[in-house]
Amino acid sequence: MANEIKFITENMRRVLLKEFMQRETQRAGYGGVDIKRTPLGTRVTLTCESPGLVIGKKGNTIKELTRAISDKFKFDNPQIAVEEARNPNLNAQIMAEKLASALERGWQFKRAAHSTVRRIMQSGAKGCQIMLAGKLTGERHRTEKIRAGSIKYCGKPAEIFLERGYVGAKLKPGILGVTVWIMKKDAKLPDEITVKKSISEIKKEESKVHINIENKIIEISDKDKKRLLMKAKDEEVVDVIEEADADIPPLPDNQNVDSSSKTSNEGGGK
């Protein structure tokens, strides 16, 4: 019984820590928290859209968060690591936060949900589903689901490839629950079958590749031949000019002397 109480209190601390981090890092685009115990202490890995807002100027914000975690939740030597979300449109928690903020700003729920689904699918997701639960159009509670692609709700694929994000949107009629499920784009589902090619088809493709390569080599050789011919022609022209210059005899030294004396006499006569 003591071990069960220990596990329950530990999980409660973790849930409360996740809610605390979600409230404190809402402006930075909270995308999830991973808590692990290490020999040196507790490692808290925070995923968000803009890590600069979490770290703060000279690291003051992240130091305050570390101090608050150690004081409120009594974790041993907490160490916070901040990671940037690679693709925010494929993070279920970030998309749930964005959808909730759109609903709080006055968007119609169908328009906001459909635009969110479209953005997720355009980013390359395998499938997604959005569920809105609460007072959507009147005083009665009802649930609206928007789905695209393929979603697995149970089994090993759901544990590995399915991400879930939940946020409560605070509206005038009450709190509206926003839940987003996203199947990762690299998900390999068991009903996906790939037929292997036969050996004859592989050989045909290889022969086509060899033919294309030979054609490319021939084209390249023709280009090289043209370039070499042009270069040879240019060299022949240069050789002809040099030969013509060599055929012209140089002026004798006497003519040079006579021409210089004539110019001197003309200058003296003047």
Sequence-ordered SSE layout with sheet pairings:
Layout: H1 2-24, E1 30-38, E2 41-48, H2 51-55, H3 60-72, E3 78-84, H4 92-104, H5 109-122, E4 127-134, E5 142-149, H6 156-161, E6 162-170, E7 175-183, H7 199-247, H8 253-269
Helix pairs in contact: 4-5
Plain-language structure description:
- With 270 residues, the chain is of the alpha+beta class.
- It has three domains: 2-85, 2-Layer Sandwich (GMP Synthetase, Chain A, domain 3), CATH 3.30.300; 90-183, Ribosomal protein S3, C-terminal domain (Ribosomal protein S3 C-terminal domain), CATH 3.30.1140.32; 199-249.
- 52% of the residues lie in helices and 21% in strands.
- It has eight helices and seven strands, in the order αββααβααββαββαα.
- A hairpin with a 7-residue loop joins β4 (127-134) and β5.
Concise overview:
The chain is 52% helix and 21% strand. The protein is of the alpha+beta class. It folds into three domains: 2-85, K homology (KH) domain (GMP Synthetase, Chain A, domain 3), CATH 3.30.300; 90-183, Ribosomal protein S3 C-terminal domain (2-Layer Sandwich); 199-249.
SSE string, helices as H and strands as E: HEEHHEHHEEHEEHH
Largest sheet: 4 strands, antiparallel
* Tally of helical runs: 8
Q: What's the Cα radius of gyration?
A: 39 Å
In one word, what is the shape? extended
Mean residue pLDDT: 78
User: What is the CATH topology assignment of the largest domain?
Assistant: Ribosomal protein S3 C-terminal domain
- Euclidean distance between termini CA atoms: 133 Å
CATH superfamily of the largest domain: Ribosomal protein S3, C-terminal domain
Name of the CATH class of the largest domain: Alpha Beta
Structural class: alpha+beta
The level of helicity is: 40-55%
CATH architecture of the largest domain: 2-Layer Sandwich
